[in-house]
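User: Modeling request: complex.
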Amino acid sequence: MPRTNFEVAAALHELADLLQINGGDRFRTLAYRRAGDAVRGLGRDVSTMTGAELNAVHGIGKATAGKVMELLQSGTIALLEELRAKYPAGVLEMTRLSGLGPKKALALHDALGVGTLEELEVALKAGRLRDLKGFGAKSEENLLRALATHSREERRILLGDALVVAEEMLEGLRTIPGVERASYAGSLRRMRDTIGDLDLLAAAFNPREVVEAFGGLPNIGRVLGAGPTKCSVLTRNGLQVDLRVVAPEEFGSALQYFTGSKAHNVKVREHAVRSGLKLSEYGLFRAGERIAGSTEEEVYGALGMQTPPAPMREDRGEVELALRGALPSLVSVGDLRGDLQSHSVYSDGRRTIREMALAAAAKGYEYFAITDHGRNLSIVRNLSLEDIERQRAEVKALNEELAGRIVVLHGLEANIGMEGELDYADEVLAGFDVVVASLHHQLRGEREVMTRRVLRAIENPHVHVLGHPTGRMMPRRPGSDLDMEAVCRAALAHGVALEINANPRRLDLKDDHAFLARQMGCLFAISTDAHSPRELDLMRFGVATAQRGWVEAKDVVNTWPLEKLRRFLAKSPVSS
DNA sequence: GCCGTTTTCGGCCCGACTGTTTTCAGTCG
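Assistant: Request completed. Predicted assembly structure:
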């Protein structure tokens, strides 16, 4: 039975797609698609919601709420089944081909009886499309190519990898004569955990020359296409990059447009229309006259709203808040005073505690926790009871040596066992300054089982932080199926902070979960889980994920001064 | 189907490109 937000959203999107093929009212189609987006970005678990609660969500009306309830209770939607019976799955799949939308896919189905990708290929090769109205030799060629590329599975790359490439390319772009400003846009600027392709934007008066010079930058593998103001290229490692060059007075509106998300843009443009204005990538216009465009702040300002930070732009209510001047003040990298998860040579880290501490001090941190693995994580070197004593002495000596520069906290990353038990007896756990409890093995259990394990760990009075809560590891390992609302409730009740692990392969809590936890009033720790000094720099990815969840600095325990953090670690009341 | 500092009815974002046409529908982002 479907229960995850992802599955419900997928069903609504499929319903929208099939209705579109069916040729119904296109706004009805749009409504289901928006409702699907709303479910996906819900933050809370849709299967725990009542019909009335669903109906209260913006973009979900009475009819859609009814369909979702039907899906949750019966396992499917009658209308969806009806449409599935009417159109072979292949028709829907055909619309995934680049250049083939619902209208043409249906035309192929009706005129030629084509109902699968294989049948389409046969028809194409037999030249049966050529004489069909609306198709020609060119469509034939394009569809054959689309079929060939379709079989390669969709590739998205990790945020961390994409950002490195983007910054490299921006650096190159800025050296091109005539380029006044340049930025990356799209899902990368919104800091999504994975990125499809890179969108770059430049401001210049000589777009043609810029486009040409861009194609010659060192890390470009192949130019896919180029026009007077834009081009698409493949980098040497196969990432597609789209560059668009605009006039400087259009840069802000273009950046706003290309940053998205699409849903955010639609919402903003609707507001513009209601205000008698027109917003496009070329600027904000009143009666054909540009009234804003050179910066995003100018554009949003002229619309009477605050500028939402890019990670918030997912149409989760940020437009409404920005219009009321009520955007939250999101946590930023500069707010952090320390890192609460890291590893040394005592477990699977690559450097000594001293080396790690010095690197943390160089970042300007006030405190820093070393949290090597406990003894039940047998796949890596871990802490024996003797190790713990040696480590404690080492930390004490280090704190004397580094007094005034940084405070080292003696921590542990405890492993959550099959029954929620941790590595050591209570009196051993009590000896650490900070205990992070994390799942590392047997992550694929049933939701009830996994949730029970995590809840037991949270209830342990010596645990301060729940580390990388779901254990996901992108791109392959999806993470445990947890009742995240129950986890948040327990964390709140027991004074446990939820980690937002900043490693780009984890980003766990992920954005949606952080959004939910923030709504429920939870506390967070944003930690790098660094295994080397360099990995301390990963912090910005954790912060970006927190921002996507609308997390504020006051909710993040490692933005607090050491004294306040110590009260939290002592499980004493923390005044704000 | 959804929604409301113009609206409980009548609207629903904007522009570019492509391939097929001969003025435009479909697709995409």
